Amino acid sequence: AKSSRKGSNRxxxxxxxxxxxxxxxxxxxxxxxxxIAAPDGVTGKGAQIGxxxxxxxxxxxxxxxxxxxxxxxxxxxxATHVAGTMAGDGTSDSALKGIAPAASxxxxxxxxxxxxxxxxxxxxxxxxxxxxSWGAGIGDSYGSCEMFGEYGQEERVVDELxxxxxxxxxxxxxxxxxxxxxxxxxxxx
Length: 189
Prior knowledge:
Elements: H1 23-29, H2 33-36, E1 48-53, E2 67-69, H3 77-87, E3 104-109, H4 114-125, E4 129-132, H5 153-165, E5 168-171
Parallel strand pairs: 1-3, 1-4, 2-3, 4-5
């Protein structure tokens, strides 16, 4: 913005929009609200969810009695946010109630052999779902656009875990969306 003083130009900071944390809206967007509502009343009770992130989920009142640590790692705010979206019970704020508020949460990191960690968690803890907030950085700046859609060794291991451990795998898609990186807008968005 220009200053009204002659010969003086300066930048004026503009506050970013407020972030709205609302899992109720997320449930509606995915149409999970239809399963959560009666007559189905799906709560996730009995489901075992593994969350693999850059650190472990932090203890929180919304996970009370349902959070188990698969390893000792520093806490990750991102892992905690993901856990809330998946299985927060809304104790702290009803708008933060997750999609499966009665599910058990098993928290680990993606460091070391994450696939072996998943296998052990499935075998020892009966893990049903593995949520993964990690993957290869694909983008023009990484010089890796040719990797988009590639099926390699890691993908084979994921398929093996699905087949042998009956483990449903969920990978975060990242945040670029319609940014035009690698012309992904033609394929995703």
